[in-house]
Amino acid sequence: MFTGIVEELGEVVGIEPDGDLTRITVRGPQVTAQAARGDSIAINGVCLTVTGTGNGEFSADVMGETLARSSLGALLPGSAVNLELPLRPDGRLGGHIVQGHVDGTGRIAARTPASGWETMRISIPPELARYVVEKGSVAVDGISLTVSALGGEQPGPDSRGRGPWFEVSLIPETLKRTTLGAKQPGDVVNLEVDLIAKYVERLLPGSRA
Q1: Which of 87, 135, 141, 175 is within CB 3.0–4.6 Å of 44 for a Cys-Cys bond?
Q2: Vertex 73, ends 70 and 77: CA angle to 5°?
Q3: DSSP state, 204?
């Protein structure tokens, strides 16, 4: 389990396709120093298993399914990535419960600077929108954020292609220490909605799950 508090901004140094797998090598001295083969590390919110470490770098194998359902398939050598080690049993839950199981991807629709902070609007697939509530939590590229606004139309036969969106407010520390500082409108981000909301829906009578 993770909390969505990014520990280090890493750099992809290698991408090696191998059949249905792709091996990603990431430079991240801080998290690598605390990891061993078989451990988990979240890369942009995707929980992966470490297959090797050395010289401040670690490697992980990514399945085709993960590449298809997340933004990891678009990574290139030189790409910056958010890194987080799993929460220790005696650690603090600084963000919210994050599994590292990406539910889907969204796209940055707009960035609006303000005095000392910034608002980012992100599109969300309609099937995930029902799990996102104002003042609730959502993980964007593995970063625990608070939803500050919701809007958009549900796609339908009379719609003009508009869809649901949510906004998050980003403080300078988040912009400096995570990949969101460099993201631009049109960029794709990984989304993980609130785990508790999904369980509640599953338990309710008449659930669609």
Answers
A1: 141
A2: 130
A3: S
Tell me the C-alpha distance between 97 and 194, whole Å.
8
Q: What are phi and psi of 110, to 5 degrees?
A: -165, 155
Residues of the chain with CATH 2.40.30.20: 8-84, 104-203
Digit-coded pLDDT (tens) for 183-198:
999 999 999 998 888 8
Amino acid at 176: K
**Residue 161 main-chain phi, psi, to 5 deg:** 90, 0
pLDDT grade for 200, boundaries at 50, 70 and 90: confident
Residue type, 82: N
Digit-coded pLDDT (tens) for 150-185: 998 644 443 344 689 999 999 999 999 999 999 999
- Closest to 198 in 3D by CA, of 127, 108, 149: 127
